[in-house]
Prior knowledge:
Two copies of one chain form a homodimer.
Chain A lengths: L3 E4 L9 E6 L3 H14 L13 E16 L7 H9 L4 E8 L10 H16 L6 E5 L10 H11 L7 H7 L8 E9 L2 E10 L12 E6 L5 H13 L16 E6 L13 H23 L7 E9 L2 H13 L1 H8 L5 H9 L11 E6 L2 E7 L2 E2 L4 H8 L3 E7 L5 E8 L3 H8 L4
Helix pairs in contact in A: 2-3, 3-4, 6-7, 8-10
Amino acid sequence: MNHYTFMNGGVTAPQGFTANGVCAGVKAATAAAITKAAKANESAVIPNGKRDLALITCDRVCSAAAIFTKNLVKSDTIYVTRKHLQNGRAQAVIVNSGNANACNPDGYEKAEAMAKLAADALNISADDVIVASTGVIGQPLPLAPIESGVAALKDILSKEGGTNAAEAIMTTDTVKKEWAVQTVIDGKTVTIGGIAKGSGMIHINMGTTLSFVTTDAAISSDMLREALLEAADVSYNMVSVDGDTSTNDTLAILASGYAGNAQITEKNADYALFLEALTAAFKAVAKKLAADGEGATKLLIGKVSGAKDEQAAKTIAKSVICSSLVKAAMFGADANCGRILCAVGYSGAEVDVSKIDVAYQSAAGEILVCQNGCGLAFDEEKAEKILLEKEITILITLGDGSGQAEAYGCDLTYDYVKINGDYRT
Amino acid sequence: MNHYTFMNGGVTAPQGFTANGVCAGVKAATAAAITKAAKANESAVIPNGKRDLALITCDRVCSAAAIFTKNLVKSDTIYVTRKHLQNGRAQAVIVNSGNANACNPDGYEKAEAMAKLAADALNISADDVIVASTGVIGQPLPLAPIESGVAALKDILSKEGGTNAAEAIMTTDTVKKEWAVQTVIDGKTVTIGGIAKGSGMIHINMGTTLSFVTTDAAISSDMLREALLEAADVSYNMVSVDGDTSTNDTLAILASGYAGNAQITEKNADYALFLEALTAAFKAVAKKLAADGEGATKLLIGKVSGAKDEQAAKTIAKSVICSSLVKAAMFGADANCGRILCAVGYSGAEVDVSKIDVAYQSAAGEILVCQNGCGLAFDEEKAEKILLEKEITILITLGDGSGQAEAYGCDLTYDYVKINGDYRT
């Protein structure tokens, strides 16, 4: 039985939080700066229409935590956020989606300046601001649009603004991702809400570019961090779109405590309830991120059971949904079992090849295409019907133990190439 | 100074070897068998026009060795070939490109039967035959077309037939790959020749589906194996098209000894000369494999210097040329340095991020786009001109030590998706 319920809303669903997002024109300003630097040609900076600056805040200081990309090349926003979270508290998040502020000589100062702009507007300490960025790498972050954007945002922060914030963190995403979930802890209704962005450059290991989570639960920053790690491990860490890991990945959470439950400070039953709801939400987001992968037409779920252990199951599930050949075959609705077996075989996990079964499953049915490591003759028409659905589960059943895992990916399409062949222009 | 010279020819260039390739219709027969099994509908088997069966042989027993895919899921042809090479000798190679003979319950018997068909036709021992296959996985190998194909091949084995053999091992390759190189060892002219196939499913770790090498050098099977491993380490093991590792990768070599040099049985100066020529040839093949990657329009060379050590340089070079985002950007001639930095950062190698320089180089010039880990403003027009060439070198200069490496890849294009969206039909 589930102990949580999904509901409408996003980062402003929990008590205490307001937010909004505006079009500040960060991307246009970056592009103009590039042109200027390269050609000494002054261009007018015009906001490009899409919202690209979000501000999320709470009316009190929250306990907070965040986890980040493992890429050695990191946006300076990450170093700044990590420093600001050393005391386990935060009150606001400022984030732009026009420029990654990564690989720039002045990145650290700019990230601090972004935090200060938000802090001054909200009349809070800059140390209590979480900063994040996403967009083009290696080009100076223009602060002017952020300054004017923050000035505009300060006056429109509201409960309703949460959905604009979700929109403002999108880059190549085609749909905005926001969610809210409720559970009961210590007799009190606890709400958790979040927004996420991510379409390309999504890979195993914090496989999301940016995600911000709010809750009114009372919970310590240490337990928030633990919960993020545990929930991400079976969700964000099991998503891959293209095998690339971003420089900017940030998953941050703020807890206002307004729900009034006894503060969670250890891994007790209350923590388990909080984690259960958070994990369910993160898994739902993981599927949304994969389904909205750049150019994707299909969500692929790699579902492994019977592996030697959970680690082996994860390794195999990830290997299958990461395979370019599997992804292209799913785009073409081609029930090729060889590609699945091949990806299982090179995953690095220990497997008894003679005990591998493979089946495809979707709303149109299920078909077994491989048994005991050998390809089966099967009804090609039925297989094609199954693979023409929007959500395909690749079931891999092993005979090695009781390890289980799910990984989330998408098909590889012409549009992925198109989107990424000319990203900057 | 190089101690070798490239020349025309392939597997029949060295003394003692003849070969040929025919259209046996293995793929058509496999397809007909699928249709039959799935729908009980008898279809006529018609050879599909392309050569798909090759036979290479020597007029005397050779010393021989082979190295294979590290995929746990292996074609049974690999187990048979490994067994046949236990005594370090072989006299012929039989290979088909219509069916991988992998993941089939009767794969081992069929692979042995293939060897026996070749052996009987050549009047040699089946234990002296190397067997290989490539093509669709998980479908029974039809022996009838191989039997009639071998009967046809036996009468047309010749020096001129080598190029037909190169053609017969192609699958989605657009150009056949054959090469020959000469060197002088112990005062004698030694020739080494080879053919290779590989277009998709090419990845680091014996990144070639099939490659067969012949030589008239006198060299022990142990030294042949060492030379294969050493030469592959900087060539086949540094190529990636799509990150997928095949079930059938086989790199085999036969040495007739006709050159008359004192047999190489240890890693002496003669071995070094042999290895130098072999390595040069393998590197040339690696570039050809990458340039002919499925759907590729460009060869990408990732060239790393200044890494902590050679291993770190290899890891970084491979990470860069394997990145889907880098590959798509190169297709679009987009001089995005962020994607390169990103791929360096997640490679897993230890790197001082503040000392990374990145430049693009081609026949049209060279342009520095990143210095000391920070993006530079650069001339976009010049950069585009450089990236519109057919061979692009991505120069990554680190400040961590003296490790160097090169890796070979290709761009990611619409056609890759097209080719792999519907491979079987």
